[in-house]
């Protein structure tokens, strides 16, 4: 018996170690988290990171660097920040600099104003959950000026951690119900995958409406109607998301189109979510940004008093490109007052958005005015940045359209091209055998052979049987030219290889 | 909406902060016996008058505006750190998105954790809200399957609100006030047992040092908790954001991870632990920058990929916050040009020792023994006694603090929470006003 005991104890110890199941396993995990995919940073990016490490370790490849043309991150691609913004933020971070001579008076004035509104005069203090009041007032003033004087109430402005945070917050409020009553949210195809990820995360029903590739990715209300009617069979459609200018498609909605959408939303009793983060990125002749709010109010009280609309903006895009600061806001229009109270409580759970981002947003909506010391430099930098982007947008469209098998719609706005690629049947077969989407197969090969990282169209959604990729127009012009050439060559050799 | 929007005390005035005493709106120019309201609610050092650390802010300023590298007044170690951080940002700019946190910052956190705990470092994940991030991985289900989270009472209100928002069931366990607010495992056991009839308890949330209590757990207590979690198959969430704030003699912070690894493989290879830290508290006090990290220990291999993917979709890790985090885990050292100023400022950041509340943390959590008459008055007014106390304190003395009800308390007990992370002058003023009010209050209701 005594001889057996130690063996028994040991067995028990081993059993104990193996028996205990983890609390968190793939089966016990929140199922919504598993459903979430985010193509922009998905497997292709992970492979790109790996390759970068391999290159650093001295591996030999047919290229010397990975070009990350996958994410809309301007600064990572060498876009220069706006000097004035960085000056104000530096002053806010280290207020002792206010005493010195390095910074212009207009920058100092804005920094002082922001710091006065911060607890203890520090951007390290918590702010009110809805955002620093004077920043919200400045945002309201900016919106009012932008929209030709249509009043904007600062109480309707909620500062957020980038626009994404605000979008998810609104979706949280909207999603409810079970089964046939489960909230359905209409999103464009192709779309920015934040939306599909958030909907999966919240367990909402995704209602897809297709943008019209033949017509420059425009939005057709009859397509909205088709999607809605089909969806009403199995869910309760409550919201309609529009991205204008579009991501990944870059299309800029015409004023007429926006009116039609608003009318549709009013008829069908839908909550409108207008993602307008690229509002300054408009390049094509004849295209102009029209804010949903402005159009709504110009349609008269029948609409402007009733249609529920939230519009989103951020400091991550346009000519600022300050993704890392996580600055953003939303304006809520015609929101039910009781719901607004709940919204205010909901945003307080995360305490507050990062204060440096709020400070940045303040300067973005309150930039140097004519006559102020920093005005000339500011205007020069802003104009130049937008101009270069416009040139690159045009260049991209032009080059891609010279490649047999690639068609690229005009890049009217935003920061991306979303060309359509035709793939040989054999390539499609091989992809399927590998269990990969054909355009993922294509993009992976492109990455391995050229070091260029793009995002396959399957990550954004596309019509069955069509294939695309999204490429940013952000790399510096000379690099962009090289990238376009390489993609062109790759496409030709790929087509030949699999024909 | 099915999102359970949590009950917060709606708040006007001072700041819309949950748990704060509502400040009734007043017209300007009303005469009061005080010139300014002192908001002593919030665990917000800078609001409370503590100055940010010079080195931190200089590095941030230089990273934001690299032209400052030419400035002669800025110390070489500041420049070196800024250059290093900028090198790690592709494009050399802090305007860049971070994926999984800037690797250099991540490495620094790893090293910090190794030094603090010994043992094998595991890659920490930085984000703006690490607790919410990990909760989301685990919380789901309804009815009996609803994930339950064992939560200390008292606890800070936004955590509870966060549970409600995610649809988790809060399972309260009471800390023992008479025993210095320590954690008794029998109480954990009781709470767990009763919870099983209405939810699926999977997470055990501990705050060490405590908020609002300031209690610092002993090693033995931590071991007990770990053993309990192992037996009952619970995932431990150890919120250790106040680990730098230790005052009382003989008090020592030891991390859950360290204790876990010193308990041998039977525990160290199996017990799942998430340990949290942030730049919001401690000597940094940079709440507004919104950055923290979580270290996930003993994650099942089957979930690693999902966790990584989920983390890749996180979008709230501001770069400026990560810079602060980098400095927190890798501050100036003796010999560095910035060290003398840094160490001096660090000492000043800790509150005066004239007021000992807990042995750590940033709050004093005081019990109010309210006279019977006051309790009756509150009932008549249709309010809670501690809320009535605090409202009057605000009106009469201009001191704003957090009502115990927001933290949860045993039935029939009343508390107030004061943030003591402030200058000693301010704190003295708060105590003076509080004392004056308290004596009057007792007098009125005697």
TrEMBL record, chain A:
Domain of life the protein comes from: Eukaryota
InterPro entries, per database record: ALAT1/2-like, Aminotransferase_I/II_large, PyrdxlP-dep_Trfase, PyrdxlP-dep_Trfase_major, PyrdxlP-dep_Trfase_small
Subunit description: Homodimer.
GO molecular function: L-alanine:2-oxoglutarate aminotransferase activity; pyridoxal phosphate binding
Reported function: Catalyzes the reversible transamination between alanine and 2-oxoglutarate to form pyruvate and glutamate.
Enzyme class: transferase
Obligatory cofactor(s): pyridoxal 5'-phosphate
Annotated ranges, domain Aminotransferase class I/classII large: 91-486
BP terms from Gene Ontology: L-alanine catabolic process
Name the UniProt record assigns to this protein: alanine transaminase
Keywords carried by this UniProt record: Aminotransferase, Pyridoxal phosphate, Transferase
One GO cellular component term: cytoplasm
Catalytic activity: L-alanine + 2-oxoglutarate = pyruvate + L-glutamate
Pathway involvement of the protein, from the record: Amino-acid degradation; L-alanine degradation via transaminase pathway; pyruvate from L-alanine: step 1/1
Family: Belongs to the class-I pyridoxal-phosphate-dependent aminotransferase family. Alanine aminotransferase subfamily.
Pfam families named among the record's database cross-references: Aminotran_1_2
Transmembrane segments: none
Enzyme Commission number(s): 2.6.1.2
Keyword Transferase included in the entry's annotation: yes
TrEMBL record, chain B:
InterPro entries in alphabetical order: ALAT1/2-like (IPR045088), Aminotransferase_I/II_large (IPR004839), PyrdxlP-dep_Trfase (IPR015424), PyrdxlP-dep_Trfase_major (IPR015421), PyrdxlP-dep_Trfase_small (IPR015422)
Record text on subunit structure and interactions: Homodimer.
GO BP terms, alphabetized: L-alanine catabolic process
Record protein name field: alanine transaminase
Residue stretches making up the Aminotransferase class I/classII large domain: 145-296
Pathway in which this enzyme or protein is active: Amino-acid degradation; L-alanine degradation via transaminase pathway; pyruvate from L-alanine: step 1/1
Classification of source organism: Eukaryota, Metazoa, Chordata, Craniata, Vertebrata
EC number: 2.6.1.2
Protein family according to the UniProt entry: Belongs to the class-I pyridoxal-phosphate-dependent aminotransferase family. Alanine aminotransferase subfamily.
Key words, A-Z: Aminotransferase, Pyridoxal phosphate, Transferase
An annotated Gene Ontology molecular function: L-alanine:2-oxoglutarate aminotransferase activity
Catalyses which reaction(s): L-alanine + 2-oxoglutarate = pyruvate + L-glutamate
Cofactor(s) listed in the protein's UniProt record: pyridoxal 5'-phosphate
Pfam hit, one: Aminotran_1_2
């Amino acid at each position: 018996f005594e001889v057996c005991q130690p063996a028994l104890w040991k067995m028990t110890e081993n059993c104990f170690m193996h028996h205990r199941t983890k609390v968190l396993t793939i089966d016990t995990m929140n199922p919504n988290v598993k459903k979430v995919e985010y193509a922009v940073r998905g497997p292709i990016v992970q492979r790109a990171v790996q390759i970068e490490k391999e290159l650093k370790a001295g591996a030999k490849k047919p290229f010397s660097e990975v070009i990350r043309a996958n994410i809309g991150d301007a600064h990572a691609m060498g876009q220069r920040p706006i000097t004035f913004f960085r000056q104000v933020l530096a002053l806010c971070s280290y207020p002792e600099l206010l005493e010195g001579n390095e910074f212009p008076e207009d920058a100092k004035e804005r920094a002082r104003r922001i710091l006065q509104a911060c607890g203890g005069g520090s951007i390290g203090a918590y702010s009110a959950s809805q955002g620093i009041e004077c920043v919200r007032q400045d945002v309201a003033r900016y919106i009012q000026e932008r929209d030709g004087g249509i009043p904007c109430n600062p109480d309707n402005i909620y500062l957020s951690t980038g626009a994404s945070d605000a979008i998810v917050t609104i979706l949280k409020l909207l999603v409810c119900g079970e089964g046939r009553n489960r909230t359905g949210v209409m999103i464009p195809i192709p779309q920015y995958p934040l939306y599909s990820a958030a909907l999966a995360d919240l367990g909402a029903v995704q209602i897809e409406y297709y943008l019209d590739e033949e017509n420059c990715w425009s939005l057709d209300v009859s397509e909205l109607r088709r999607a809605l009617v089909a969806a009403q069979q199995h869910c309760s459609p409550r919201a309609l998301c529009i991205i204008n200018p579009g991501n990944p498609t870059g299309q800029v909605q015409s004023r007429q189109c926006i009116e039609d959408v608003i009318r549709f939303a009013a008829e069908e009793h839908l909550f409108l979510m207008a993602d307008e983060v690229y509002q300054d990125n408009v390049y094509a002749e004849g295209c102009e940004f029209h804010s949903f709010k402005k159009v709504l109010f110009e349609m008269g009280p029948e609409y402007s008093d009733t249609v529920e609309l939230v519009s989103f903006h951020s400091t991550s895009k346009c000519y600022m490109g300050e993704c890392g600061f996580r600055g953003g806001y939303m304006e809520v229009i015609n929101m039910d007052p009781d719901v607004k109270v709940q919204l205010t409580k909901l945003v307080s759970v995360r305490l507050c958005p990062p204060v440096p981002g709020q400070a940045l947003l303040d300067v973005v909506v309150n930039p140097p005015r004519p006559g102020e010391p920093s005005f000339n430099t500011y205007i020069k930098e802003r104009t130049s940045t937008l101009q270069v982007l416009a040139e690159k947008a045009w260049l991209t469209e032009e080059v891609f359209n010279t490649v047999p098998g690639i068609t690229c719609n005009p890049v009217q706005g935003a920061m991306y091209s979303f060309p359509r690629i035709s793939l040989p049947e054999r390539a499609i077969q091989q992809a399927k055998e590998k269990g990969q989407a054909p355009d993922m197969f294509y993009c992976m090969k492109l990455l391995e052979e050229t070091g260029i990282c793009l995002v396959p169209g399957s990550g954004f959604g596309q019509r069955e049987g069509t294939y695309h990729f999204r490429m940013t127009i952000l790399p510096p012009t000379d690099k962009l030219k090289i990238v376009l050439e390489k993609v062109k060559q790759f496409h030709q050799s790929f087509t030949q290889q699999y024909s | 909406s099915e999102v359970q929007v949590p009950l917060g005390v709606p708040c006007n005035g001072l700041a819309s902060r949950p748990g704060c005493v509502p400040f009734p709106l007043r017209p300007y120019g009303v005469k009061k016996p005080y010139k300014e309201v002192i908001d002593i609610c919030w665990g917000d050092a800078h609001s409370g008058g503590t100055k940010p650390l010079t080195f931190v802010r200089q590095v941030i300023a230089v990273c934001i505006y690299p032209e400052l590298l030419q400035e002669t007044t800025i110390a070489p170690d500041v420049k070196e750190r800024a250059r290093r951080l900028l090198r790690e940002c592709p494009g050399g700019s802090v305007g860049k998105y971070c994926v999984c946190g800037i690797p250099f910052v991540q490495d620094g956190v790893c090293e910090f954790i190794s030094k603090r705990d010994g043992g094998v470092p595991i890659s920490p994940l930085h984000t703006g809200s690490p607790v919410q991030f990990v909760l989301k991985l685990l919380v789901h289900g309804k009815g009996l399957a609803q994930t339950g989270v064992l939560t200390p009472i008292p606890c800070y209100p936004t955590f509870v609100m966060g549970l409600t928002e995610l649809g988790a069931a809060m399972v309260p366990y009471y800390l023992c006030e008479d025993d210095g607010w320590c954690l008794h495992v029998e109480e954990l056991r009781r709470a767990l047992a009763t919870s099983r009839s209405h939810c699926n308890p999977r997470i055990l949330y501990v705050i060490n040092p405590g908020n609002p209590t300031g209690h610092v757990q002993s090693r033995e207590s931590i071991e007990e908790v770990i053993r309990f979690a192992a037996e009952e198959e619970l995932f431990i969430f150890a919120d250790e954001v106040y680990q730098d704030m230790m005052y009382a003699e003989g008090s020592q912070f030891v991390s859950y991870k360290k204790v876990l690894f010193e308990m041998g493989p039977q525990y160290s290879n199996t017990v799942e632990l998430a340990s949290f830290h942030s730049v919001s508290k401690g000597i940094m006090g940079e709440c507004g920058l919104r950055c923290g990290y979580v270290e996930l220990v003993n994650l099942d291999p089957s979930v690693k990929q999902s966790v990584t993917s989920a983390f890749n979709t996180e979008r709230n890790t501001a770069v400026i916050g990560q810079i602060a985090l980098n400095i927190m885990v890798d501050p100036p050292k003796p010999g560095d040009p910035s060290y003398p100023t840094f160490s001096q400022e660090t000492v000043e950041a800790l509150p005066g020792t004239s007021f000992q509340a807990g042995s750590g943390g940033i709050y004093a959590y005081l019990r109010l023994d309210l006279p019977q008459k006051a309790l009756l008055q509150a009932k008549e007014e249709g309010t809670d006694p501690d809320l009535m106390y605090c409202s009057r304190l605000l009106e009469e003395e201009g001191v704003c603090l957090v009502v115990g009800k927001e933290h949860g308390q045993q039935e029939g007990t009343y508390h107030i929470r004061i943030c003591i992370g402030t200058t000693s002058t301010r704190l003295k003023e708060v105590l003076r006003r509080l004392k004056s009010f308290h004596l009057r209050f007792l007098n009125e209701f005697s």
